[in-house]
Design goal:
With about 800 residues, this protein is of the alpha/beta class. The chain is built from 24 helices and 34 strands. The chain has 6 domains: about 100 residues, PriA, 3(prime) DNA-binding domain (GIY-YIG endonuclease), CATH 3.40.1440.60; about 60 residues, no CATH class; about 60 residues, no CATH class; about 180 residues, P-loop containing nucleotide triphosphate hydrolases (Rossmann fold), CATH 3.40.50; about 180 residues, Rossmann fold; about 90 residues, Ribosomal protein S10 (Alpha-Beta Plaits, 2-Layer Sandwich). Helix 1 crosses helix 2. The chain starts with a strand and ends in a 6-residue tail after the last strand. It binds a DNA duplex (12 and 12 nucleotides) through strand 1, strand 2 and strand 3.
DNA sequence: AGCACGCCGACT
DNA sequence: GTCGGCGTGCTC
């Protein structure tokens, strides 16, 4: 007998192991590693992943697999191994890792029903309303559970657990005419006179003969309702076929094919080692450091072309917010229908279909966000990560994996190159390139000898001293006016949405805080409400100070809404588009706003983070950064790096084509090296300077970090558990490692839960991971019911 | 995670 | 005496 080893769909420390199941004979040829199966688990039925087969087991009362949920494995041998590796590296459960690697449609839904088994009885008839079964939910709602419980005990009803497979394929109904011309004519006469639709449809198909046709399209063309077609199917006039199809998110778009562009000398030099690696079937990680507009994408495209020529496949990762139609167009334009696109703005069904195209080998290239790194290709020839420094490549929920590490792992397996591209590489990557762990490739110049935009730094303290209390410096204001007159476009960047960052009482200093989080609330003018950007709590705006009843309430700080208002006042002739989370929540709104801007329906694009990337519009000649300091003062050792990256990225939006660009950076700390060096577009010097800061602070890339966060509703409980964990870890690490804390998190309370944490900085600590594992096992099983949550983040993006 | 089993307080 | 509160431990 063969036994299946199964990882069950229960994310907990106690169940994070293999469970053995017997394979019923009828499934013996189907059940293989990588397949999803429905298995009994305690009283329930749940989903599981087969990870292996074996011939014997010590388990006494072995249960059997109920049924397979797939016909072919959804995870191949490589991905099964990769999942287990991710679970180890990120200290998460195997089941969570498997789910992260698959489209959401593969995650099973469960339902629970009560079915009657006994003979017809008066009471049962009443409970079931004459039906054979009712859902648990319905029984709960109608408060029937106590009565039903008795019937279950008496053996008149049973509880059935069902695993629902959500991975549904979309089917379309097609029809073929299954009747001679004569028969149709007969029908036309015999149909009753009121059957107008059927008559019209028969006439239509007599005039427009066809082989096979999509039923809904036929209904539309003949202008009859769908039911008419069904009626004729019943009469045997049509033969129907259900045809499997894909939900195509780019159905109504056509992409113009592009040919490879001639490479510049710099591009040629950069691409050469990549081509070598491809042709020698060799794994190597390249860091492609190229200034904005230096033509990195063309290198990607030509490297991919080479990979396709060799009959292998390519994965391109792009930050989620940069996955604009513009970006997709570049790949679809070059490789046409060989491209699948994967990102979170697709519906679950669309994601599943794109994934199936990859699995069935109908595409050769995948362009996608973080999770596309798991594309189930079996013959990978290259993995490209564009904007490799982007923090969105690290998943913020468990499993907290970094797509860069996963890509390199897969590159090793497939013996293929991994390209990390950026104008502002993360310090970690650049340091590895310096140590020749990665192979550094540089593109120091912009394409076609276009100069980098000129950057001027404006000291806002100086403006203030000169009596300008507006949010725009004289220079920025004049330049905006100038662009509007010339019909050119400007981009204004502010890393903060809402209207005012906080409101404060001028008499007593009261600042309105979120009652659930330890953070000040942001004023939103459009809805006239105070919002907490952490938990979403909203409340009205106080007319008087809740503390001292004073009416002197002032609005401090500026957000995008406030800037929009100011622009309307100061530059009423300017047409402004605002892009932030508040204006782009609806599906497709992101794309629509950018289209409007591109087609010249606005002069100024005002926005947050999301406009910093990938915008490539020829008419932008001015970029204004309203406050370069907002990020710089965050309690984060990467604040300077993030500021540098952001300023460099934003500046790169200007003057990418014929017109030259200018950038105005407003700041209260003009002397800071991250601002100065971003203005000079001098990555090299920034790297040296920032590395020395990191060394002094014992931060990455000199040390690795592990952040342990404990949350609890009760402050004292959170503190004491963090202390215990910290003491335990201290005794399990060497004196090479540094343990900091316990300290309150930089946001000490979110959603009514207090947050305490400790941080470990380490270099080589073989005992650390086993110790962390123990912490999780202990606190997540025993204490979860006491309301603790303990999370461990290896190499955290931020310390909050 | 769910669910059953089991051991203590407040009711018909 | 029993119903039901939720603490404990198991699920192949």
């Amino acid at each position: 007998m063969t036994i299946a080893q199964v990882i069950v769909d229960v994310p907990s420390a106690g169940t994070d192991k293999v469970f053995d199941y017997a394979i019923p004979d009828k499934w013996a040829n189907i059940i293989r590693p990588g397949l999803r199966v429905a298995v009994p688990f305690g009283p329930r039925a749940i989903q599981g992943f087969v990870v292996g087969l074996k011939s014997r087991t010590d388990i006494k009362n072995l249960k059997s697999i109920r049924r397979p949920l797939d016909l072919t494995p959804v995870l191949n041998e490589e991905l099964l191994q990769l999942g287990q590796w991710i679970a180890e590296e990120t200290l998460s459960y195997k089941i969570s890792a498997f789910h992260a690697m698959l489209p959401a449609a593969m995650k099973a839904k469960y339902d629970k029903i009560i079915r009657r088994t006994g003979e017809a009885q008066l009471l049962l008839d009443e409970l079931f309303e004459g039906k054979q079964e009712i859902t648990w939910k319905e029984a709960e709602k109608r408060n029937l559970l106590p009565a039903l419980h008795k019937e279950i005990e008496n053996g008149n009803a049973e509880v059935i657990y069902r695993v629902k497979n959500r991975a549904r394929k979309k089917l379309i109904r097609t029809v073929q005419v299954n009747a001679e011309q004569e028969k149709l004519e007969d029908l036309l006469e015999t149909l009753p006179s009121h059957a107008v639709n059927q008559k019209r449809l028969v006439q239509y198909i007599m005039q427009h003969p066809f082989e096979t046709m999509d039923a809904s399209q036929l209904a539309k063309s003949a202008s009859v309702p769908q039911e008419t077609i069904k009626a004729l199917i019943k009469k045997g006039i049509f033969k129907e076929h259900m045809l499997e199809t894909y939900r195509d998110p780019y159905e109504h778009r056509s992409f113009e094919r592009t040919a490879p562009l001639p490479l510049t000398a710099d591009q040629q030099t950069a691409i050469e080692p990549i081509m070598q690696s491809i042709s020698h079937h060799r794994h190597e990680t390249f860091l492609l450091h190229g200034v904005t507009g230096s033509g990195k994408t063309e290198i990607y495209l030509q490297a991919i072309q080479e990979v396709l020529k060799k009959g292998r496949e390519a994965v391109v990762l792009v930050p989620e917010i940069a996955l604009t139609p513009q970006m997709v167009e570049r790949f679809k334009g070059r490789f046409g229908s060989d491209v699948a696109v994967l990102h979170s703005r697709l519906s679950i069904g669309e994601q599943y279909d794109e994934w199936r195209k990859i699995q069935r080998k109908e595409v050769k290239v995948v362009v996608g966000a973080r999770s596309a790194v798991f594309a189930p290709f079996e013959n990978l020839g290259i993995i490209i990560i564009d904007e490799e420094h982007e923090t969105s490549y690290k998943q913020e929920e468990a499993p907290r994996y970094h797509a860069r590490n996963v890509a390199i792992k897969r590159g090793e397996y497939h013996h293929c190159p991994v390209i990390l591209g950026s104008a502002t590489p993360s310090l970690e990557s650049f340091a590895r390139a310096q140590k020749s762990v990665y192979h550094l490739l540089s593109l120091p110049k912009r394409m076609n000898n276009r100069g980098l935009p000129s950057v001027s730094i404006i000291d806002m303290r100086e403006e203030m001293r000169n009596g300008n209390r507006s949010m725009f410096s004289i220079e920025l204001f004049e330049k905006m006016k100038d662009r509007i007159e010339k019909g050119e476009q400007a981009v204004l960047f502010l890393n903060r949405r809402g209207h005012s960052t906080f409101i404060m009482c001028r008499d007593c200093g009261y600042v309105m805080q979120c009652p659930h989080c330890d953070i000040s609330m942001t004023y939103h003018r459009s809805s006239n409400e105070m919002k907490c950007h952490y938990c979403g709590f909203q409340s009205g705006v106080p007319a008087v100070c809740p503390e001292c009843d004073s009416s002197h309430i002032r609005y401090f700080g500026m957000g995008t809404q406030k800037v929009e208002e100011e622009l309307a006042k100061l530059l009423p002739e300017a047409r402004v588009i605002r892009m932030d989370v508040d204006t782009t929540t609806r599906k497709g709104s992101h794309e629509r706003l950018l289209d409007q801007f591109q087609s010249g329906k606005a002069d100024i694009l005002l926005g947050t983070q999301m406009i910093a990337k990938g915008l490539d519009f020829p008419n932008i000649t001015l970029v204004g950064v309203l406050s370069a300091d907002t990020m710089l003062h965050l309690p984060d050792f990467r604040a300077a790096e993030k500021t540098f990256q952001l300023l460099t990225q934003v500046s790169g939006r200007a003057g990418r084509h014929e017109l030259s660009g200018e950038v105005v950076v407003q700041t209260y700390t003009p002397g800071h090296y991250s601002i100065q060096l971003a203005a000079a577009q001098d990555y090299g010097r920034f790297y040296v300077q920032e590395m020395s800061m990191r060394k002094v602070g014992s931060y990455p890339p000199f040390y690795y970090l592990a952040l342990i966060t404990v949350t609890h509703e009760d402050l004292m409980k959170a503190v004491s558990v963090t202390e215990k964990i910290s003491a335990f870890l201290q005794s399990n690490i060497s004196d090479q490692a540094i343990l900091l804390g316990p300290v309150a998190s930089s946001i000490p309370k979110i959603n009514d839960r207090y947050r305490y944490q400790c941080l470990i900085k380490y270099k080589r600590e073989p005992n650390l991971f086993p110790a962390l594992r123990k912490v999780l096992e202990h606190y997540n099983t025993q204490s979860s019911r006491e309301g603790f949550s303990v999370t461990i983040d290896i190499e955290p993006n931020n310390m909050m």
